[in-house]
Amino acid sequence: MLVKIDGVENKEFSKNKNLFLSFLKDNTHSGKVAAQVEVFKGVDVQKDSFHWVMSTFDTDRDFEKVDPCGWDLKNYLINPVVLWSHDYSIPAIGIAQNVKAEKQLEGDILFNSKEIDEFGWSIGERVKAGVLRCGSVGFRVDELEFLDAKDRDCDCIFRKQELLEFSICCVPANPFAIHVPQKRLEITEVIQEEELSYWDKLGKGLARA
Question: What residues does the Prohead serine protease domain cover (predicted)?
Fold first, then answer.
């Protein structure tokens, strides 16, 4: 955990959660924290997954849209492979977890460990370093809508499609299909129940994602 107070890292608070909690209590009035407090949770590529926006309803670089309500995930959830740049000729570099399609298609990407796949692990390390943060979906089209030439910002909309795979890549068709590098929590208010654990407090009232 990394803690910043008014934009400056406080190493003592980062190491000692009880000291940090004491600071929050001392600087909280009527549920509001006086200082600007930011909490960053570090990510270990070998242990933790990376949350990813896999596809959105935005017009992509091919002047197409993919309807997030039209995703068929049934088969993908059985075999949730993550590839490098849609390359079917090499083994998957990881898997996707918690995949869902609501306002957008999103999920958590877990890369292979270094012990079994040094290449897949190295892609994860690049993601961890912020060098790679884009992704792209591979899918089979089931239903397609062509748009009238008047007043349109795209040529067609994929209305129903089956997700086959998700790939990490350098330049995606959809520029909004990206990984969020860090989960940032901004402290806004504190709840006082002593029976709650420190992280329960963060999750239930100390922090706003």
Answer: 117-186
